[in-house]
Amino acid sequence: MDWLRDELRPETIVYKYYPFIRLCNLLATHELSFQKVSAWKTTDPFEDIFRECTLHSPDLICALHVSNFCDQLYGQSWTLQADKMHMWKEFSIIDDSLEKVSVLVKTTVSDLQSIIGYSTVINGYSFFNTRRVGKVSYLEQNEIISWIESLKNINPTEIQQYAEVAAFIKRKKRNDGYDYSREEEIRCLAWGEDEEKDLFIFKDVDTMVFSEYVLDPRLTRDQSIFVKERLMELGVDEKIIHPSHLTY
Q1: Contact 232/238 with Cβ under 8 angstroms?
Q2: How far is it, in rounded angstroms, from Cα 138 to Cα 140?
Q3: What does the alpha-carbon distance between residue 137 and residue 181 come to, in Å, rounded to a whole number?
Q4: What angle do CA 100, 18, 5 make, to 5 degrees?
Q5: Among 210, 172, 178, 207, which Cα is nearest to 46's?
Q6: In whole angstroms, what is the distance from residue 34 CA to residue 37 CA?
């Protein structure tokens, strides 16, 4: 449980390598979408790992509770890494269509919290936040497996709390050697009430909380102009749209 701790100060600057098409949709609709945390498993099998937890409990439907809670948890990834080439290469793909290119968006922890809200609920005997912004803890694969195996005897009333803890845990390295810890990931989490929905949508988002937009350094001049003009059409001030400081 020590992994889930509030280390981020409100003024901490955070970034997201935001897919251009999704960013345009956010700016146009003022709706911010979180996807199910379970969907992250498509890129890393160690995501949604809490679902593998087998609890020893007199409650015969405890396993179903675990699955239901996992399906009600939604999230979005941000980072402490600003304008770094290894991040551009991992999260932005350049082609003629620009369908997979990203734009680096800057804000603060406080502003993220203002978007997603902050509240508490009662679940059994436990009080905890239903929405949270926090750092990811990077662990070795064997450490993650050992931790999951250690949860066999937790109280069923604590399932939701441990599911949230697990969502802030990520393995240090991918099987191909890629170092996840270089991403310095920040995660925003929110609990939904309907596990059937694929997205949790925050409406009426004030996009003015995004204080800077940085373009991929690998874009051509014409591509950069196109992306910049599209952002401006959607209300972004030209003064806060900048080229990357990187050379490519």
Answers
A1: yes
A2: 7
A3: 8
A4: 135
A5: 172
A6: 9
- Evaluate whether residue 6 is within a structural domain: no
Residue positions counted in the chain: 248
How many beta carbons lie within 10 A of that of residue 85, not counting itself? 13
Contact predicate 49/70, CB 8 Å: no
What is the DSSP secondary structure assignment for residue 173, as one 8-state letter?
B
Q: Contact, 157 vs 128, CB < 8 A?
A: no
Residue 3 domain flag: no
38 found inside a domain: yes
Smallest Cα–Cα separation from 185: which of 101, 112, 78? 78
Q: Helix 62-70 vs helix 159-166: angle between axes, to the nearest 10 degrees?
A: 40
Residue 62: domain span: 13-243
Sign, CA torsion 136/140/145/149: negative
Instruction: Specify burial of residue 12 (Cβ count, 10 A radius: 0-12, 13-18, 19+).
Output: middle
How many whole angstroms separate alpha carbon 94 and alpha carbon 237? 24
Q: Is the pTM of this model over 0.70?
A: yes
80-112, pLDDT tens digit by residue?
A: 999 999 999 999 999 999 999 999 999 999 999
Q: Can you tell me whether residue 167 is helix, strand or coil?
A: coil
Q: Amino acid identity of 139?
A: L
Provide the pLDDT for residue 61. Answer: 53
In a domain, 66, yes or no: yes
Q: SS3 for 179?
A: strand
Which amino acid would we find at residue 173? K
